[in-house]
Amino acid sequence: MATDASPLREILEREHPTIVERWLEAILATYPEDSARFLKNQRDQFANPVGTTLSRELHSVFDELVRGETAESTREFLDRIIRIRAVQDFSPAAALAFVFDLKQIVRELIMDEVREKGLLDELARFEARIDEMGLLAFNVYMECREKLYELRVQEVKKGAYLLLKKAEMIVETPSGESEPVM
Fold first, then answer.
1. Between residues 56 and 1, the one the model is more confident about
2. Residue 30: what are its φ and ψ, rounded to 5°?
3. CB atoms within 10 A of CB 177
4. Cβ pair 153, 39 in contact under 8 A
């Protein structure tokens, strides 16, 4: 452990495995029971890429937060989690609630020690970084959803084009352009 680490950082580093395990459990609780059990228990990264990604990236996000990095430094790790959540059947709030769940988990696990050591101000700064990360997560989520909608529109356009061509309502010119049949 670094000698320049703050007392709160030392506590968070010590409790890291427990905090991240509970954080993962909070995310998995948003899935149907059978899916959650599979995501938690299947350790093969090829059989369970979602569970593996969630676990790995939560550890990385937490590491960045504990180090006191900016929310932006968590973007790549959040992106990998949010891409999964954005394509699943979650509302935006449900997809991103996991970010804010971290605050409650940390409080439950370390609040007594934080009070004893007079670290409430440090905890408030840590929680502010979580809030910043939540805003960043929303931006990442919206970027993912916009990309999904763009892909769907392209798919619909391509399907419509193929249908029109099959119905011989569009012909291709020698230059490769498409023209409607009159």
1. 56
2. -85, -10
3. 8
4. no
